From TrEMBL, chain A:
This is V-type proton ATPase subunit. It is found in: Vacuole membrane. One of its GO terms (cellular component) is vacuolar membrane. InterPro entries: ATPase_csu/dsu_sf, ATPase_V0-cplx_csu/dsu, ATPase_V0-cplx_dsu, V-type_ATPase_csu/dsu, V-type_ATPase_csu/dsu_dom_3. It comes from Carya illinoinensis.
UniProtKB/TrEMBL annotation, chain B:
Essential component of the vacuolar proton pump (V-ATPase), a multimeric enzyme that catalyzes the translocation of protons across the membranes. Required for assembly and activity of the V-ATPase. Residues 94-128 form a coiled coil. InterPro entries: V-ATPase_116kDa_su (IPR002490), V-type_ATPase_116kDa_su_euka (IPR026028). This is V-type proton ATPase subunit a. One of its GO terms (biological process) is vacuolar acidification. Keywords: Coiled coil, Hydrogen ion transport, Ion transport, Membrane, Transmembrane, Transmembrane helix, Transport. PANTHER family: V-TYPE PROTON ATPASE SUBUNIT A1, VACUOLAR PROTON ATPASES. One of its GO terms (molecular function) is ATPase binding. It is a multi-pass membrane protein. One of its GO terms (cellular component) is vacuolar proton-transporting V-type ATPase, V0 domain. Belongs to the V-ATPase 116 kDa subunit family.
Length: 351, 819
C-alpha cells in the first residue's frame, strides 16, 4: 500500500528492521578506527575487535593471525547475520534480501571462469569466492568452455539465468569477453533490482532508487574509465550502461564518447551530486576516485537509516558491513606489512 | 533528650552502608602481581581505572593479558575436544600443587601440539580409511550393475545399431553396456566411471551430467549400505554409489571435471570378475588393518584427553584468575621512576587491616625489599555503597537495589522491607491453604539449597531460587493473614472455638437475605467463620480490609517520613528536618493520621458514625456541628486545628528552604573572591567534603523549582498514595472471590454429581486452577503490587537511590561468562 507503510510494515518486517538497526549500532565507529589504526600487530587488532561484535568469531583463532583469517571471520559474521535475517524474512522482503546477494554471485561466476581460464585450481578459487554469492553448482562452472555452455550447464538453475539472455554468444571465453559478460550481467541485475524496488513502492522505492542509481552511475563511470584505450566500441560501451540513474540518458551519451579521464570528469561535473566527488580529485587522477565514491556511498547508506518502514536499511546495512570489512582488511594489511603511514589512504569511516 | 535517645539506639548493620575510604596503593613492581592476587582473594578492594583513556593494547600488561587469552583459547579447544570425545568431566579434580603460569603455558602448548598432531594423524588415517571404505562400497555395488547389465546384454546382442539413435534410453543403455561388455578391449569408445558421492548431491549431479553430455550417458546409482564419516564435521554422511557409462574422450574429461566439482570420488572397478574378487579381498584386509590402527589412535587420544581432563577445571580457573589479575594491573599507573605501580580505589574501613595483612604477606612472599605503601586519601566523588548481606537478607537488598542503589550511607529501606514486604504481600494473598502450598515450595527450595546453588538453573528457577527466603516469609505471613481472614482455599474453619453467630431459624435459609443473630462472645481470632455466604460477609470484610489498608498505608508512609528525619540527622542537615520533615509529618498526620485515629476510635467504641461524612465535611464546612457523627468530645475544634495545621504546612515546606539556602550561599561567599586562591592547593586540614561540595554554582530558580516540585508531589502524593494503598483491599478481595469461585463453582458443583469421572474432572480443574491461577499468577500479581507499594509509596518519602554499588576485585565473583 503506497504511502501507508507505517500501518502494516511492522506486521512482517518490524522484527527484522529492529534486528538490522541493532546490527547497525554494532558497526565500528571512528573511535574504533582510531584505535585500530594505532595497532602494532595483528594480535592487537584481534584484541581490539574482541570487544566488538566480531569478538566471538575471532576468539578461537590461534595466535599467529593472518589478514585473511581476520577478513574471513568478519565476513562470516556478516554471512551469519544475513542468513539469520533471510530465515526470518517473509515475502517480499526475502526476495529483496536475495537480490542483495546477486551482485556477489556475478562476481563469483566471473572469478571462477577467469580462474579456470588461467588454469587455477577450482578449490583454491572456491575459497576466494564471497560466501554470500555461493550457489549449489558453482564448482561446475569450471567445465564450461564458452558462454553458451556456461548458461546451459550451470547458470540456468541460478537466479542469474534471466540476466544471461543478453550475453549468450558461442564466443570462447577470454578476459575481454568475461569482463563484458560481468558488466552486462551487472547491468541486467541492477535494472531488475531497480524494477523490483519500484514495484514494492513506498519509501523502499524512493530510497532504493537513490542508492541503486548511485550504484549504476558509479559503474557507468568506472566502465568508461576502464574502457578508455581498449578496443571496445562506443556503441558497445553504451550498451553496458544501466537504463536508469541520474546519468541516464544524456550523461550516457556523453560518457560513451569520452576518450580520457578528464573528459569523463567534464561530463560528471555537470551533475551537482557528483561535482563534490570530482572536485576532491586533481586533474588526470583516477586513483582516489574509488575512495571518493565509497565515501559518498557510505554517506548515502547511512542516510537510509534516517527513515523508517522501508527495506533500504537491509541493503544499507549489508553494504556498510562490507565497507567495514574492506576497511579492516586494509588496516590489517597495513599493520601486517608495516605500512602504517598508508593506513588512512583507503579507510572510509562509517560514522 | 531526644538526641540522646536516638544516639543510644542499637546500631543496625543494614541501616547504613559500610563506611568506605578512598585508598592509594604504591606497590613495587616485583611484588605487584602477588599483591593483586592476594587482594583478589580478600575481595574487599575496588580498583579505579587510572588508564581509562588508554585503549586496551596500549596498557602495560597487554602481553600478559594476550597470553592469558591465548591460554584460555587453548583450554576452550581442549574442552571442545573433550566434549566431542564425550568424556565426562571428572567430578573430583586431583589436588595438585600450584604450578607457575609459565609452566602452565608450556604444558598447554605441549598438550595442544600433541593433540593437534594426533588429530592430524587421525584425520589422515580416517581419510585413507574412508577412501578404502568407499572403494569397497563401490566395488560391491558397481559390480552388481556391471554383472546384471552384462547378463542382460547377452540376450540382446542381436539388436541393431539403429536402436542407438532412439531416444529411449533404457534400451540404449543396455545396448551400450552390451557393447562395452563385448568389446571391452577394443576401442569402441564406450567406458564407464564408477564412484561415490554424497546422497544429497546426487540429483543435481545427475542433471549436470546429463546436460554436459547432452544425454549421451547412462547413470546408475545405488545407495551405499554404510554411512561414512565426514572428516571435517565428523558427522556420518549417507553416500550413493554411481556408475556412469559414456562414450568419447571429451565426455570423459567433462565428466571427470564435474565429478571433481561435486566432490565425488571415483574408483576404478576392473571388469574382470576374478580381478574384482582379488581387489575386494585386498581392500577388505587393508580396511581391517586400518580399522585397528584407527582404534588404537582413538584410544591413545582419549587417554591423552582424559589426562588433560583431570586438570582442566583447575587450569581454567587459574587462567581466569591470572587474566583478572592482569586486568587489574592494567588499571594501575606507573609512577615516575617506573619502579612502582600506583593504584587507587575504595575499600570498606573495616577491611583495612585485612588488606594491610594481605599486602604484608605479599611483600614477604615475594622477598621484596620495599614494602607496599597503603594509605588513605581524599576523593572528590562520593564513595560506593556496600551492604554486607547474608543469604537471608540478600534477596531483600536486591529488591531495593532493583529500584536504585542507595546513596552512600543513606538509610536503607531493606531493613524494613524484610518484614513489610512479605507482610503487604500476605495482606493481598491471605489464605492459609495457599500459604501452606507456598511454604512447602519455599521449604523444598531451602532444603535443596546446597544442591541447587552449585547448578546452573534456568532463568525462572534462578529467580525462584534467589528469592527463596522472600518466598518463605511471604508464605508464613500469608498463613498468618489467612488465619485472620479465616480462609483455607476459601473455606472457613472453626479453629478457635465456636462462632458467635447463629441463624434466625433452624433451616438457615435466610442467612443470605436477613443475616445472622449474635448469641455469644465474639470469635476470638480473625473473621467469624459463620459469616461466609451470609448477608453481612461482604460489607463487613470490605469495611475491615479497606480500613486496614489505610491504617497500614499511613503507618508505612509515616515510617518513610521518619526515615527522612534519620537521614537529615545523619547527614547533619537541620534544614531538611525543620523545613521538610516537620511540615510533611504535620501535613500527612493532620489529614490521614486523623482519619486513622477516627477509624481506630470507631472500632474501639463501636460507634455508628459515618467516616466519609466526617472527613468530607471537615473540608467543606469545618465549623458545622457534627451531629450524630461525633465520635469524641472536642472533635470539631480538633478538626479545625488540624485543617489549619495542614494549610500552614504547605507553604512551610515550600518557601523557607530555598530562601535559606540562598542566604547561606551568599553569606559563605561574601568576600571570598580571594579566598579561593588559598584553597586551590591541597589543604589537608580542612575537611574535604565540606570544602569541595560547596563550590558548585548556586542557581536559585533551579533550587526553587525543585523544591516546588517536591512539595507539590508530596501534597498530592499524600492523597494519591493513601488511595494507592487501597490496592491491598482490592487484591485481597479479588483473591478471596476468585478462590471462592473455583471452590464453589468447580469443586462443589462437580462433587454434586454422583459420577466418579465428573468428580475427577472437577478435581483436576480445581487443582489446575489453584496451582496456576491462584498460586502462580496471583502470587506474581500480589508480589508486583507489594513491590510497587515499597518502591513508590514508601521509598519516595526518603530514598534517593542514586548511589553506585561497591564492586570489589574478588576471585569468587569471577564467572564463566567473563571469558
Amino acid at each position: 500500500m503506497y504511502g501507508f507503510e507505517a500501518l502494516t510494515f511492522n506486521v512482517h518486517a518490524g522484527y527484522l528492521e529492529a534486528i538490522v538497526r541493532g546490527h547497525r549500532a554494532g558497526l565500528l565507529t571512528a573511535a574504533d578506527y582510531n584505535n585500530l589504526c594505532q595497532c602494532e600487530t595483528l594480535d592487537d587488532i584481534k584484541m581490539h575487535l574482541s570487544a566488538t561484535e566480531y569478538g566471538p568469531y575471532l576468539q578461537n583463532e590461534p595466535s599467529p593471525l593472518h589478514t585473511t583469517t581476520i577478513v574471513e571471520k568478519c565476513t562470516l559474521k556478516l554471512v551469519e547475520d544475513y542468513k539469520h535475517m533471510l530465515c526470518q524474512a517473509t515475502e517480499p522482503l526475502s526476495t529483496f534480501l536475495e537480490y542483495i546477494t546477486y551482485g556477489h554471485m556475478i562476481d563469483n561466476v566471473v572469478l571462477i571462469v577467469t580462474g579456470t581460464l588461467h588454469e587455477r585450481d577450482v578449490q583454491e578459487l572456491l575459497e576466494k569466492c564471497h560466501p554470500l554469492g555461493m550457489f549449489d553448482s558453482i564448482a561446475t562452472l569450471a567445465v564450461a568452455q564458452n558462454m553458451r555452455e556456461l548458461y546451459r550447464l550451470v547458470l540456468v538453475d541460478t537466479p542469474l539465468a534471466p540476466y544471461f539472455s543478453e550475453c549468450i554468444t558461442s564466443e570462447d571465453l577470454d578476459d575481454m569477453n568475461i569482463e563484458i559478460m560481468r558488466n552486462t550481467l551487472y547491468k541486467a541485475y541492477l535494472e531488475d533490482f531497480y524494477r523490483f524496488c519500484q514495484k514494492l513502492g513506498g519509501a523502499t522505492a524512493e530510497i532504493m532508487s537513490d542508492l541503486l542509481s548511485f550504484e549504476a552511475d558509479r559503474r557507468a563511470v568506472n566502465i568508461s574509465i576502464n574502457s578508455i584505450g581498449t578496443e571496445l566500441t562506443r556503441d558497445d560501451r553504451k550498451k553496458l550502461y544501466s537504463n536508469f540513474g541520474l546519468l541516464h540518458p544524456y550523461g550516457h551519451e556523453e560518457l560513451a564518447v569520452c576518450e580520457d579521464i578528464d573528459q569523463v570528469r567534464g561530463v560528471m561535473e555537470k551533475y551537482p551530486p557528483y561535482q563534490s566527488i570530482f572536485s576532491k580529485l586533481s586533474y588526470g587522477e583516477s586513483q582516489m576516485l574509488d575512495k571518493a565514491f565509497y565515501e559518498e556511498e557510505v554517506k548515502r547508506l547511512c542516510l537510509a537509516f534516517e527513515q523508517q518502514f522501508h527495506y533500504g536499511v537491509f541493503f544499507a546495512y549489508m553494504r556498510l558491513r562490507e565497507q567495514e570489512i574492506r576497511n579492516l582488511m586494509w588496516i590489517s594489511e597495513c599493520v601486517a606489512q608495516n605500512q602504517k603511514s598508508r593506513v588512512h589512504d583507503s579507510v572510509v569511516f562509517i560514522f | 533528650m531526644e538526641r540522646r535517645f536516638v544516639d543510644n539506639l542499637p546500631p543496625m548493620d543494614l541501616m547504613r552502608s559500610e563506611k568506605m575510604t578512598s585508598v592509594q596503593l604504591i606497590i613495587p613492581v616485583e611484588s605487584a602481581h602477588r599483591a593483586v592476587s592476594y587482594l583478589g582473594e580478600v575481595g574487599l578492594l575496588q580498583f579505579r581505572d587510572l588508564n581509562a583513556d588508554k585503549s586496551p593494547f596500549q596498557r602495560t600488561f597487554v602481553n600478559q593479558v594476550k597470553r592469558c587469552a591465548e591460554m584460555s583459547r587453548k583450554l576452550r579447544f581442549f574442552k571442545d575436544q573433550i566434549s566431542k570425545a564425550s568424556l565426562l568431566s571428572s567430578a573430583h579434580p586431583v589436588i595438585q600443587s600450584d604450578i607457575e603460569l609459565e609452566e602452565l603455558e608450556r604444558r598447554l602448548a605441549e598438550h595442544e601440539n600433541e593433540l593437534m598432531e594426533m588429530n592430524a594423524n587421525g584425520e589422515k588415517l580416517r581419510l585413507s580409511y574412508n577412501e578404502l571404505l568407499e572403494f569397497k562400497l563401490v566395488l560391491q555395488k558397481a559390480v552388481g550393475f556391471l554383472v546384471s547389465s552384462g547378463s542382460h546384454a547377452v540376450s540382446e546382442r542381436e539388436l541393431d545399431e539403429n536402436v542407438y539413435s532412439k531416444d529411449d534410453y533404457v534400451e540404449t543403455a543396455s545396448l551400450l553396456e552390451q557393447e562395452m561388455r563385448s568389446g571391452r578391449s577394443d576401442q569402441s569408445g564406450l567406458r564407464f566411471i564408477s564412484g561415490i558421492i554424497c546422497k544429497s548431491k546426487v540429483l543435481r549431479f545427475e542433471r549436470i551430467l546429463f546436460r554436459a553430455t547432452r544425454g549421451n550417458m547412462l547413470f546408475n546409482q545405488a545407495s551405499a549400505d554404510e554411512e561414512i564419516m565426514d572428516p571435517v564435521s565428523s558427522e556420518m554422511v549417507e553416500k550413493t554409489v554411481f556408475v556412469v557409462f559414456f562414450s568419447g574422450e571429451q565426455a570423459k574429461t567433462k565428466i571427470l571435471k564435474i565429478c571433481e566439482a561435486f566432490g565425488a570420488n571415483f574408483y576404478p572397478v576392473p571388469e574382470d570378475i576374478t580381478k574384482q574378487r582379488q581387489i575386494t579381498r585386498e581392500v577388505s584386509s587393508r580396511l581391517g588393518e586400518l580399522e585397528a590402527t584407527l582404534d588404537a589412535g582413538m584410544r591413545h587420544r582419549n587417554k591423552a584427553l582424559a589426562s588433560i581432563n583431570i586438570h582442566l577445571a583447575k587450569w581454567i580457573s587459574m587462567v581466569r584468575r591470572e587474566k583478572a589479575v592482569y586486568d587489574i594491573l592494567n588499571m594501575l599507573n606507573f609512577d615516575v621512576t617506573k619502579k612502582c605501580l600506583v593504584g587507587e580505589g575504595w575499600c570498606p574501613i573495616f577491611a583495612k587491616n585485612q588488606i594491610q595483612a594481605a599486602l604484608q604477606r605479599a611483600t614477604f612472599d615475594s622477598n621484596s625489599q620495599v614494602g607496599i605503601i597503603f594509605h588513605v586519601m581524599d576523593a572528590v566523588e562520593s564513595p560506593p555503597t556496600y551492604f554486607r548481606t547474608n543469604k537471608f537478607t540478600n534477596a531483600f537488598q536486591e529488591i531495593v537495589d532493583a529500584y536504585g542503589v542507595a546513596r552512600y550511607q543513606e538509610a536503607n529501606p531493606s531493613v524494613y522491607t524484610v518484614v513489610t514486604f512479605p507482610f503487604l504481600f500476605a495482606v493481598m494473598f491471605g489464605d492459609w491453604g495457599h500459604g501452606i502450598c507456598l511454604l512447602l515450595g519455599a521449604l523444598v527450595l531451602i532444603a535443596r539449597e546446597s544442591k541447587l546453588g552449585t547448578r546452573k538453573l534456568g532463568s525462572f528457577m534462578e529467580m525462584l531460587y534467589g528469592g527463596r527466603y522472600v518466598l518463605l516469609l511471604m508464605s508464613l505471613f500469608s498463613i498468618y493473614c489467612g488465619l485472620i481472614y479465616n480462609e483455607f482455599f476459601s473455606v472457613p474453619f472453626h479453629i478457635f472455638g465456636g462462632s458467635a453467630y447463629k441463624c434466625r431459624e433452624t433451616s438457615c435459609g435466610d442467612a443470605k437475605t436477613t443475616g445472622l443473630v449474635k448469641y455469644q462472645d465474639p470469635y476470638p481470632f480473625g473473621v467469624d467463620p459463620s459469616w461466609r455466604g451470609s448477608r453481612s460477609e461482604l460489607p463487613f470484610l470490605n469495611s475491615l480490609k479497606m480500613k486496614m489498608s489505610i491504617l497500614l498505608g499511613v503507618a508505612q508512609m509515616n515510617l518513610g517520613i521518619i526515615l527522612s528525619y534519620f537521614n537529615g540527622r545523619f547527614f547533619g542537615s537541620s534544614l531538611d528536618i525543620r523545613y521538610q520533615f516537620v511540615p510533611q509529618m504535620i501535613f500527612l498526620n493532620s489529614l490521614f493520621g486523623y482519619l486513622s485515629l477516627l477509624i481506630i476510635t470507631k472500632w474501639c467504641t463501636g460507634s455508628q458514625a459515618d467516616l466519609y461524612h466526617v472527613i468530607i465535611y471537615m473540608f467543606l464546612s469545618p465549623t458545622d456541628d457534627l451531629g450524630e457523627n461525633q465520635l469524641f468530645w472536642g472533635q470539631r475544634p480538633l478538626q479545625i486545628i488540624l485543617l489549619l495545621l495542614a494549610l500552614i504546612a504547605v507553604p512551610w515546606m515550600l518557601f523557607p528552604k530555598p530562601f535559606i539556602l540562598k542566604r547561606l550561599h551568599t553569606e559563605r561567599f561574601q568576600g571570598r573572591t580571594y579566598g579561593i586562591l588559598g584553597t586551590s592547593e591541597m589543604d589537608l586540614e580542612v575537611e574535604p567534603d565540606s570544602e569541595r561540595l560547596h563550590y558548585e554554582d548556586f542557581n536559585f530558580s533551579e533550587v526553587f523549582v525543585h523544591q516546588m516540585i517536591h512539595s507539590i508531589e508530596f501534597v498530592l502524593g499524600a492523597v494519591s498514595n493513601t488511595a494507592s494503598y487501597l490496592r491491598l483491599w482490592a487484591l485481597s478481595l479479588a483473591h478471596s472471590e476468585l478462590s471462592t469461585v473455583f471452590y464453589e463453582k468447580v469443586l462443589l458443583l462437580a462433587w454434586g454429581y454422583d459420577n466418579i469421572i465428573i468428580r475427577l474432572v472437577g478435581l483436576a480443574v480445581f487443582a489446575f486452577a489453584t496451582a496456576f491461577i491462584l498460586l502462580m499468577m496471583e502470587t506474581l500479581s500480589a508480589f508486583l503490587h507489594a513491590l510497587r507499594l515499597h518502591w513508590v509509596e514508601f521509598q519516595n518519602k526518603f530514598y534517593h537511590g542514586d548511589g553506585y554499588k561497591f564492586r570489589p576485585f574478588s576471585f569468587t565473583t569471577l564467572t564463566e561468562d567473563e571469558d
